[in-house]
Amino acid sequence: MSAAASCVAAPNAVAARSPSSPSRAFKIALWAERVAAMAEQSLLLEVSTFPKPGLVSDVDNGSHTDMDAAMFRRSAAAIRPFFRELVIAGLCNAEMATLRRIGLRGERAMLEATRGVNTHRGAIFGVGLLCAAAGLRARGHGYVNVSLGRLVAARWGRDIVGGPRLADSHGEMASRRYGAGGARQEAARGFPSVYEVGLPALRDALRATAGDAPEALCTTNTPVVTWPPVSVSMNGKVVPSTL
Prior knowledge:
The structure is a single chain. The protein has one domain (about 5-240). Helix content is about 65%, strand content about 0%. The chain is built from ten helices and two strands; from the N terminus they run ααααααααααββ. It has a two-stranded antiparallel ribbon. β1 (about 230) and β2 form a beta hairpin. About 35% of the residues are buried.
């Protein structure tokens, strides 16, 4: 087993045992679980936001006939453990191949929870990479004040672009037809649409609505950036996030 794989395995093994353990591995596992909970919450905020033209919400199923809000909640719960694994993998400075294997296991758990419906494949990819970047930032080494998007681009950007492609995915078909970069290019560049468009719009909407989050999300209509604006540090303190 490689050093990175051993690093990833230890906190995950400890997480399954009694929380009475005072070990550093348990503290890491607990912190990673808190980050994973925030990731899951971002998905729940997304599905609860309405209106979103064509997308599933608590009010209606949009343009979808094969999924509903309850399915999205089952899916989010099913992939939360894999977000935790990705946090730990980032903390261990794992290679993209390791992140990809965790993500594929997360996809299988999602499909089992939804009986084969793709609810969160894009979230496993995008939010999963941000989870890994959160772990990487926790390593220190000058990463503390660097946005998660920039860390994704710097650490894994080249491998994201050069990784395996699903020929029948909607993203790949759109890329071939329209020349669009898609989610892969967006992640490799550090999620510029989130940082340069979505997040500023959400912050402006929160100010304009005096902090009314549901109204701000509707105003922004970019629920992909609803990751809570806080981070949980290794010692359990809640601190402002630089996402």
